[in-house]
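Anyone opening a protein record will find just a pair of labelled lines. With that in mind, the following record should read easily:
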Amino acid sequence: MKLLVAALASELSAFPDALPGFDRLVTGPGKLQATYALTRALDANTYDEIVVVGTAGAIDPELAHGVHEVSAAFQHDVTDLDGISGQHVSLPARVSNGRDGVLIATGDHFVDDAEVTAVIRPTGAALVDMETYAYIWVAGQFGVPIRVFRAVSDSAEDGALTDWRDAVARCSVQLRDFIADAYGV
């Protein structure tokens, strides 16, 4: 059995309520809710794989709209005791799922500011979201393979929240089609 995970129910709006071979989990937005909900799910059941779907803002202006697989994540909104951005005092700077894909910057606020994206862009991140770091870290703690697929919803700059609200249904359809092709369901 696999676990299909999204932060928000709207990101699953194009998916059927039941998907053969998958349980479903909606965690809520942000790293804390993602960590709590996924930990509870993995503590209660055994899964062969976690499959995360959802939206993300594009930090890389050359990145095509569509669905992208994520290979690694870092927290763009933390600093260590020396003030080094992206470094946490007790967590790894980056987490990886061992897959090929793009780097995503995870933080607990919705990025919709050109100044913020200008700070994140030099890290090499292609996307920004609010949960992926937590999902990959928790999966690693439980030793469960994880794949993360993000559909580009906005440019993570001025007006991104309006763009996201308009795009979430379109992104859900893209993700549903992608999962249907990748998993045959």
Remarks:
- The mean pLDDT is 91.
- The first strand starts at residue 2 and ends at 6.
